[in-house]
TrEMBL record:
Gene3D superfamilies xref list: 1.10.1660.10
SUPFAM superfamilies reported in the protein's UniProt record: Putative DNA-binding domain (SSF46955)
HTH merR-type domain span: 20-88
Name of protein: MerR family transcriptional regulator
Superkingdom of this protein's organism: Bacteria
Name of one Pfam family that matches: MerR_1
């Protein structure tokens, strides 16, 4: 067994993308069931990584996304629609961010234009 240096192992605690949570723990953390996590995986909202033994592992980032879908499902939205809504919300947020960034760069008179 290899032992990691403490700083490398500690870095994983801060990594939102590190697949640290088993399906049971992940479901518990977002207040759902393992079946719900399988369903959002089937809808391709999140794609869990697999352990060497083939078990699903989830990151904190994935759990935040799944929790957003769970809130919509709890309000009566079908799971497929909830997953699509979360995807579209994220796409809209990214488009608005890019649009704002483009506005800032094109409206800045001190910024050189063209070659």
């Amino acid at each position: 067994m290899t032992r990691e240096t403490p700083s490398r192992a500690t870095d994983r605690f801060d990594d939102d993308d590190y697949p640290a949570y088993t399906m049971g723990r992940a479901a518990e953390m977002i207040g759902s069931t393992p079946a719900f996590l399988r369903a959002v995986g089937e809808a391709r909202l999140i794609v869990p990584l697999r352990s060497e033994g083939g078990h699903r592992r989830y990151s904190r980032y994935q759990l935040r996304i799944a929790a957003r879908a769970r809130e919509l499902v709890d309000q009566g939205t079908p799971i497929e629609a909830a997953c699509r809504i979360v995807i579209l919300e994220d796409q809209l947020e990214e488009a608005q961010r890019l649009n704002e960034e483009l506005r800032r760069t094109t409206s800045d008179p001190s910024r050189p234009t063209g070659p």
